[in-house]
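Title: Prediction job returns without error message
Component: structure pipeline
Severity: low
Priority: P3
Assignee: unassigned

Description:
Job completed but the reporter wants confirmation the result is attached to the right record. Sequence as submitted:
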Amino acid sequence: MTRVPLSTLAHGRSGDKGNHANVAVIAYTDAGYAWLREHLTAAWVAAYFAPLGASRVKRFEAVNVRGLNFVLYDALAGGASTSLRTDTQGKTFALALLRAEVDAPAELCARRA
């Protein structure tokens, strides 16, 4: 196992739906997606984003694009027009998650094709 930022295995995208944030994590490889499906759980993401006070986190799978989408309910402190947070639309959430360090098999960290 090697400790690496999640960005070694995937890229991402995020945004808002009212007071909720969507965070998508898209694996570079099929093997990376299999690893993400097993290890990147809603509970893990909820713990990572705990300071935001989301009421719950739900995970959705998008197998056809090797993606996992997490919805962080009530994580935007009211949403774009009422929130006083720096990122009122959750646009930086994917980048924040991709900076998280994970223990992944070395062979997944060496390839992206």
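Comment from assignee: result matches the submitted record. DSSP finds four helices and six strands in the chain.
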